[in-house]
Amino acid sequence: MKINHSSGDESVSSSVVSELEGVLLKDPHPFPYFMLIAFEASSLIRFILLLLMWPVVRLIEVLGMEELGLRLMVFVAVAGVKETEIEAVSRAVLPKFYMDDVDIAAWNEFSSYGRRVVVTKCPRVMVERFAKEHLRADEVVGRELEINRFGYATGFLITKEENSLHQQILSLFKHHDHPNNLSLYKHQCGGENEHHLRPLPVIFHDGRLVRRPTPLTSLLIILWIPLGIIIAFIRIIIGMILPMSLIPYFTRIFGGELIVRGRPPPPSSGSGDGVLFVCTHRTLMDPVVLSVVLRRKVPAVTYSISRLSELLSPIPTVRLSRDRKLDAEKIKAELAEGDLVVCPEGTTCREPFLLRFSALFAELTDRIVPVAMNYRVGFFHATTARGWKAMDPIFFFMNPRPVYEVTFLNQLPVEATCSAGKSPYDVANYVQRILAATLGFECTNFTRKDKYRMLAGNDGTVALKAATPWMEQVKEILGFFLH
After folding, report:
1. In a domain, 192, yes or no
2. CA atoms within 13 A on the CB side of 324
3. Domain stop point among 140, 155, 172
4. Domain for residue 205, yes or no?
5. Are residues 253 and 165 in the same domain?
6. CA-CA distance, 7 to 26, in Å (whole number)?
7. What residues form the membrane-spanning segments (predicted)?
8. Share of the chain residues as helix, strand and coil, in percent rounded to the nearest 5
9. CA of 219: how far to CAs of 37, 108, 171, 207, 437, in Å?
């Protein structure tokens, strides 16, 4: 690996300047990340348009005009898009896909230096959050988008001499000796030390797409969407009209799969001895899938799902207020009537981590049955924080083959509950640990607030659509495809 650094023989006291695309990332071409900006910050129409421009971009690059090809991608991806939307996608969506493409051997070498600078051919806003928080870069050098006075991107890059990549790099080293060649080149690293270090993992991320939208993957997504919409509505209608006992037989017919492990408890008698199913929270479908497996409608407590999702839900939902006293009374009243489902993480997490469990459930009953929920989808995530929450169930059922894994653990013994003198926090932490061990996940102390703060930035605000009137949510659905 050829590394050019400033003064000093030891890596820890030297500086390194590394290209991102093709060096720290395996893929040298940034096209998939512009596709993500087009899809998540704008609309399906822009996503399709950028894909149609892909052959033109490649032809321009083959002819030796890479700069022109880059500017064409930038223009199609961001022209007319709000700067705040571009920033939100760069913060909440792109890091996950960048992380999946990291070359660990190159990053190990990069991270061994004292001062680390990343250079990207993309607009700096797309890369900076990921490079600094996950690659631990000290500085990020990239192009700047031109933003008009109304806060919208014009689609052009600022071309002033002082904003050129070369000048930006030189300015970083103006008080030190600087490298003559400002690049980090890949080589075949020895296998012994390749995986010595790891970048900081991405725990929270947003967006609808599961896979990095390469040209081929993007084409498959576009071709699938019309059929996926039809299949989604068929699946939803079947779930609404058929008895729970029959739905498992139709799941495989329409491409889904349910994997069940463990033995669920029998239904409660309804005489105040309801079982509280404590589930991990992967998607908004967790309680519905649990009811399908149990073959009976088990009510679920909810916080911020959309009104449309509640309307489409085949099971009863109990909306909580996040007022601890009122919520406790509601949960006790439901348990007096029978079984109930709760997801004490309070929000979903897509990665193999569990958020901190709220201890409220442990205070209300000793009949606790932990249930490990996990899912696999091919194209679309079923939950989002940034908006269009009304489309969550539709996107889940649009996947060609949604798979859910449900693992029932044994009911907690009395000695592991509050009745034996355990504190609610100890009980909640214990349930979190055994569920994480079952799934092979890691426990964290992050909460719902931490998730939204990280996805939203320093101010902690995220555009949620849970309380939006249903007509406005329908408009949002149409706007996703047409805006």
Report:
1. no
2. 7
3. 172
4. no
5. no
6. 29
7. 33-57, 218-242
8. 45, 15, 40
9. 16, 34, 42, 18, 38
Which 8-state DSSP code applies to residue 466? T
CATH number, domain containing residue 16: 3.40.50.1000
Which tens digits make up the pLDDT trace of 343-357?
999 899 999 999 999
Residues 152 and 248 grouped into a single domain: no
Task: Report the alpha-carbon distance of residue 276 to residue 209 in Å, rounded.
Answer: 33
Chain centroid, CA 208 distance in Å: 8
- Does residue 335 sit within a domain? yes
Residues 213 and 35 sit within 8 Å (Cβ to Cβ)? yes
- Which residues span the domain enclosing 138? 11-172
Q: Which of 128, 120, 56, 45 is nearest to 80 (CA)?
A: 45
Pairwise CA distance, residues 362 & 357, whole Å: 10
- Asked, for residue 435, whether it belongs to a domain, the answer is yes
Element (H, E) at 277: strand 276-279
Do 157 and 124 touch, CB atoms closer than 8 A?
Answer: no
Q: Is the same domain home to 228 and 115?
A: no
- Residue 22 has what DSSP assignment? I
Q: Are 168 and 66 in contact (CB under 8 A)?
A: no
263: number of Cβ within 10 Å: 9
Is residue 454 within 8 Å of 95, Cβ to Cβ?
Answer: no
How many Cβ atoms from other residues are within 10 Å of residue 321's Cβ? 10
Give the model's pLDDT for residue 273: 77
Task: Kindly report, residue by residue over 436-466, the tens digit of the pLDDT.
Answer: 999 999 999 999 999 989 888 754 434 333 3
Quote the number of domains for the chain. 2
**Co-location of 126 and 229 in the same domain:** no
pLDDT digits (tens, 9 = 90+) for 375-420: 999 999 988 887 667 788 889 999 999 999 999 999 999 999 999 9
| Nearest by Cα to 274 from 370, 416, 369 | 369
241 is written with which tokens?
A: 């009209």
Q: What is the pLDDT of residue 192?
A: 42
Residue with tokens 């967790």: 286
Q: Which residues of 12-32 are buried (b: 16+ CB within 10 A; e: fewer)?
A: eebbbbbbbbbbbbebebbbb
462 and 391 inside one domain: yes
Q: Are residues 355 and 435 in the same domain?
A: yes
Same domain, 324 and 444: yes
Q: What percent of the chain has pLDDT over 90?
A: 61
Distance CA 110, CA 104 (A): 10
Q: Are 147 and 287 in the same domain?
A: no
DSSP states of 134-203: TS--SEEEEE-EEE-TTSBEEEEE---GGGSHHHHHHHHTTTS---SS---B-----TTSTTS--PPP--
Please tell me whether residue 352 adopts helix, strand or coil conformation: coil
